[in-house]
Amino acid sequence: MKNPKRARKYLFISLLVLISVLVLMQTGNIVWNIADPSRTCASCHEIRNSYEQWNISAHRGFDCKTCHGTALSNGMHSLKEKASMINRHFRGDPVTDIRLDEKQVEKMVSLCAECHQNEFAKWKTGGHSMGFTDVFLNTEQNHKEPANDHCLRCHGMFYEGSVTALVSPLDTTGPWKIISPEHKSRYAIPCLACHNIHTSGQISKSPDYANPGQKAFKQPLPYPKAGYYDPYEKTFFTADKLPTIQAWQKDRKIFISEDPLARICSQCHAPDASHQAVTSDDKTPMGVHEGLSCMSCHQPHTNDAKQSCRNCHPAFSNCGLDVEIMNTTFANPESPYDIHTVSCSDCHPGYVQKLNKPEYTLK
């Protein structure tokens, strides 16, 4: 413009409008994030189902943004996601099943750790905190069998691609490498593989100590909050909804624990399609331990079983030997007697197991 005063005037008005818009946006953002979720997030009927699940969960005391962030906190990804939901809403194809993508699931690990510090520390020391590098660059396993998409069922439930885009080459000779740089440090089995934030549950609280009816042994069994995320169904199933596996030792059906939490373990540590025990990565208890739940020996987050013998056995077994130093994989990983399958008959040929019962009798 030729008139400098008019140019400055337009510039001032433009800046004033821009500042006003930014102030309104920030004010709206603050109001939105401090308001009751039922009036904000849940006002969108596409999210109503997720809101109702959250409203009866143990996390209902936390605002949505505690875990999900705000529309601006995740940068362009959040804006693109919200824009897509609005677009689908007006196209008559609304999003009715809100899901976290793989990056969001990975971020949830650190968010879970902020409150569940003890559980997170235990998980970090256990085998389930492995990363994609630990799984798919395991030379011993790769020499036996090339990586395939089925591996992702247990070692990458939330991975959004094919194994061909994750590791190369897909053979038994190698050398192998992780193709995607971001997956070199990503967890293969994150918290959400066994836990669902929106699962029904009660907020932790102390009992009424003056009320005899609140004694622990009089309380109903707790509803199993843990479960398994099925990557094929893309759905989380609580432990009580999972099936109890069937396993066979040749033509003998093995007695399986009905503990719902053990069903989670068996989603990955189960026999192959033949249902024969000890195939694939099966850890079904047999022999002297047949019928036991995985939780009888293993701590849930660390998988540690160092104190498990002492939970059931006296200092010495009926054989007069210390069970903790017996020649089993409990004492020595190289032992031929797997602690999951060890039987009296391994050392005492005169013992035979009764059909379909975890009991032993002298032949």
SSE order in H/E notation? Answer: HHHHHHHHEEEEEEHHHEE
Rg is: 27 Å
What is the mean pLDDT? Answer: 84
Strand content: 5-15%
* Order of strands in the sheet with most strands: 1-2
Q: How would you name the oligomeric state of the polypeptide chains in this document?
A: single chain
Pairing-aware structural class of the strands and helices?
mainly alpha
Main beta sheet: 2 strands, antiparallel
Shape from CA axes? elongated
Structural summary, described in words:
29% of the residues lie in helices and 6% in strands. The chain is mainly α. Among the domains are: 30 residues; 90 residues, no CATH class. The chain has a two-stranded antiparallel sheet. Strands 3-4 form a two-stranded antiparallel ribbon. Helix 5 crosses helix 6. The longest helix has 31 residues. The radius of gyration is 27 Å and the shape is elongated.
Summarize the structure.
The protein is mainly alpha-helical and 363 residues long. It is built from eleven helices and eight strands.
Topology diagram in text:
Elements: H1 4-34, H2 48-55, H3 64-68, H4 76-90, H5 102-115, H6 117-124, H7 132-136, H8 139-144, E1 167-168, E2 177-178, E3 227-230, E4 235-238, E5 248-249, E6 252-253, H9 260-265, H10 308-312, H11 344-347, E7 351-353, E8 360-362
Antiparallel strand pairs: 1-2, 3-4, 5-6, 7-8
Which structural traits does this protein have?
single chain; 363 residues; mainly alpha; two-stranded antiparallel sheet; disordered C terminus
